[in-house]
Write a structure and sequence with these properties.
The protein has 76 residues and is an alpha+beta fold. This is 4a-hydroxytetrahydrobiopterin dehydratase.
Length: 76
């Protein structure tokens, strides 16, 4: 589940291996690009951590973040 932390929506995803994690990141990247709303994220082997915040709104959580989070959830 997404958590609200420091004005960000944050979620950690764990996969079987790096290839599966990277495939997920590729899907997220395509979705984010279509929305023109890009996550802060990190990847360590099979784990992907995503942070969503809207920089143009003063680094707060907005509907753009919630919409992207919902779309990301559909990619799992």
């Amino acid at each position: 589940m997404w958590e609200e932390k420091d004005n960000k929506l944050v979620r950690k995803f764990e996969f079987t291996d790096f290839v599966e994690a990277f495939g997920f990141m590729t899907k997220v990247a395509i979705c984010a690009e279509k929305m023109n709303h890009h996550p802060n994220w990190s990847n360590v082997y099979n784990t992907v951590t995503i942070e969503l915040t809207t920089h143009d709104a003063g680094n707060t959580i907005t509907d753009k973040d919630r919409k992207l989070a919902s779309k990301i959830d559909l990619l799992i």
